[in-house]
Automatic annotation (TrEMBL), chain A:
Pfam families attached to this UniProt entry: ER_lumen_recept (PF00810)
Name of the protein in its database record: ER lumen protein-retaining receptor
Family per similarity comment: Belongs to the ERD2 family.
One GO cellular component term noted in the UniProt record for this chain: Golgi membrane
Keywords: Cytoplasmic vesicle, Endoplasmic reticulum, ER-Golgi transport, Golgi apparatus, Membrane, Protein transport, Receptor, Transmembrane, Transmembrane helix, Transport
GO molecular function: ER retention sequence binding
Lineage: Eukaryota, Metazoa, Chordata, Craniata, Vertebrata
Natural source organism: Microcaecilia unicolor
Transmembrane segments: 65-82, 119-138, 150-168, 174-199
Amino acid sequence: MNIFRFLGDLSHLIAIVILLLKIWKSRSCAGISGKSQALFAVVFTTRYLDLFTNFISFYNTGMKVVYIACSYAMVWMIYSKFKATYDGNHDTFRVEFLVAPTAILAFLVNHDFTPLEILWTFSIYLESVAILPQLFMVSKTGEAETITSHYLFALGVYRTLYLFNWIWRYQFEGFFDLIAIVAGLVQTILYCDFFYLYITKVLKGKKLSLPA
Amino acid sequence: QEPNKTHDEL
C-alpha cells in the first residue's frame, strides 16, 4: 500500500461521510441524485463479492464493509427516510444508458470469463460513469450546494489519487491493470470540468452556480 | 488461479 492509494481511500471515505452527514443533519437530500447513489450501491455490491471468497487484510475487509453499508444507508435515506425532500424531477438521467453499455463491455473486455470477474469488471466500468446522473442534475439546476461540491471534489480526488497509485505500482512493482487504469482515467476526466469550477468558485467562498 | 492484483484495491 502506497501513500497515494491510502489517501485515495481516505478521500473516498471522506466524500461518502460528507454526503451522509449532509443529508442526515439537514434532514434533506435536495440536490442529490438518488440514481448516482443507487449506482454506487450496485458498484460496491458487484465489486466486493470477493469478501466471501478471499481475505486480503483487515483494512481491506473493513473498508469494503463500510463502503457497502454507507452506500445502502444513502439509498435508504434518499428513497425512504427523506423521500419527501428528494428532487426526483431533476434526477432524470437515463441510467439504462450507463448500465447496459458497461454490462456489455464487461462481458467483452475482462481478465477472465468467470461470473465474479465479469461482475468485478462491470463494477469498474460502471463506477467510472456512475457520477453522471449527479453531474447532469447539477447542470440541469445550474447550481450545487457548497457541501455537495465538497462531496464531488473529494470523490474526484479519490480516483485521481488512484491514478498516481497505479503509476507508482507500475514503477516499483512492474504491475499494471489496463482495465482499472483506462476506467480510472475516464472517471477522472469526467471530474475535470467540475474541478475547474470548484477551484475557481467554491474555494473562493462562492456557491457553485453555472452560467445560464 | 491467483486473483488479479488490483483486486486488493478498493
